[in-house]
């Protein structure tokens, strides 16, 4: 084999934007496959420390990172000559970071979003933000990666399964191959809006699940909440064009089960503390990482009002977070609502 052939077979470098726990975990997964990964880390001091120690002590302490993972605090350096870009920044800064990236994008590029949320101001998903800001001069494709996947378990190589959705089957299959390993299984989908909405909405239900545990309520209550929460997710999602079965898949019920029951869930943790009587501002002040459900609740409340979709659980979570509704009162109001026929409540 000559050097030219070897160069052709070498996997191309990937740019990962966002050095939190999830961005670092996915970057490390790719680097462990022999891919050169350039990771944009916003915090300069953390970036310098990661370069020296090969550890993200702030978000994934104790995890030794691959030598092929290259942290950098320069967006330009991370994006240079990269065709495949993974976005792993929180939803409330996604647009701002994406706008900064435009100066360095030449195309063609594949943007893969691993962000789970809905923008507060515009009520747009991440794909809609990219559609809005991408100039016609840049050739690009979009995909979204979502599913039940705690970063700390992925870096430990715990068997995990997720979904990647793209309107282009070829892009979905390329991303599937890129991320698949013996412990990380990737399924494909063409339902971008469904996978995005499922990933955002389950965080609100996880807040509620945490509150139930914080209040000391039982397994019956949590099971009822998760099932009726799934109905709300399906109603809003299908009203926006999502495929109903997406909510029964990994991005929907899979991620819902994980975030409502797993101790590593940030959203469940916030909900648990609210259920125990702590105030939201106090809880958030003590957190290093973002609980996406807090901001997404505001977006979903407004989106449901705008679209005329009934979402009683999400409405109550909104009132608890932003109107000081006591969690106990929220439970009582949900239980005493008008009685319904179950199958009439699943789709918008």
Q: Stretches where pLDDT falls below 50 for ≥5 residues?
A: 1-8
Give me the CATH architecture of the largest domain, please: 3-Layer(aba) Sandwich
| Topology order in helix (H) and strand (E) letters | HEHEHEHEHEHEHEHEHHHHHHHH
The tally of strands reads 8
Portion in strands: 5-15%
CATH fold topology of the largest domain: Rossmann fold
The profile of the biggest β sheet is:
8 strands, mixed
Summarize the structure.
The chain is an alpha/beta fold and 348 residues long. Helices cover 51% and strands 11% of the residues.
What does it look like?
Helix content is 51%, strand content 11%. Mean pLDDT is 94; it is low at 1-8. The longest helix has 23 residues, at 192-214. The protein has 2 domains: 3-190, NAD(P)-binding Rossmann-like Domain (Rossmann fold, 3-Layer(aba) Sandwich), CATH 3.40.50; 194-345, N-(1-d-carboxylethyl)-l-norvaline Dehydrogenase, domain 2, CATH 1.10.1040.10. The protein starts with a helix and ends in a 13-residue tail after the last helix. With 348 residues, it is an alpha/beta fold. Helix 8 links the parallel strand 7 and strand 8.
